[in-house]
């Protein structure tokens, strides 16, 4: 997934549906997010996948016959603020080196 396109799709989902995007890190082959919302995490993940798939297909980066997603992503509940803080730190700083920009 292109970094800018993937991040844009997730930000659009959050804005449109009223989710609080607390952290995001788009990698070359997966995405990490921390999101606060008043619903189960599975529909949030499904919305992220649907928006991102649509964006990839609009840009002709993904054909209709390809299903790009694993059957399920990680959707843990973070009940305590300290757990949210740890998840945010992991998403922002625990993913290795920053990806280079190829947009210039």
Explained architecture:
This protein is an alpha+beta fold and 104 residues long. It has helices at residues 3-17, 41-58, 81-93, and strands spanning 20-26, 31-36. The protein is globular, with a radius of gyration of 14 Å. The mean pLDDT is 84.
Write the layout of secondary structure elements.
Elements: H1 3-17, E1 20-26, E2 31-36, H2 41-58, H3 81-93
Antiparallel strand pairs: 1-2
Using brief descriptors, characterize the structure shown.
globular, alpha+beta, two-stranded antiparallel sheet, 3 helices, 104 residues
Shape: globular
Radius of gyration, taken over Cα atoms and rounded to an integer in Å: 14 Å
Low confidence ranges: none
* Strands ordered across the widest β-sheet: 1-2
Binned, the helix content reads 40-55%
The tally of strands reads: 2
What distance lies between the first and last C-alpha atoms, to the nearest angstrom? Answer: 18 Å
Structural class: alpha+beta
Element-level helix/strand string = HEEHH
Number of helices: 3
Strand content: 5-15%
- Could you tell me the mean pLDDT? 84
Main β-sheet: number of strands, strand sense, barrel status? 2 strands, antiparallel
């Amino acid at each position: 997934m292109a970094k800018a396109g993937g991040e844009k799709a997730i930000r659009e989902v959050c804005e449109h549906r009223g989710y609080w995007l607390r952290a995001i890190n788009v990698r070359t082959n997966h995405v990490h997010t921390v999101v606060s919302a008043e619903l189960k995490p599975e529909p949030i993940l499904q919305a992220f996948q649907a928006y991102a798939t649509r964006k990839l297909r609009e840009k002709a980066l993904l054909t209709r016959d390809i299903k790009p997603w694993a059957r399920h992503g990680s959707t843990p509940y973070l009940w305590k603020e300290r757990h949210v803080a740890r998840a945010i730190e992991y998403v922002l700083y625990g993913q290795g080196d920053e990806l280079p920009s190829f947009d210039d």
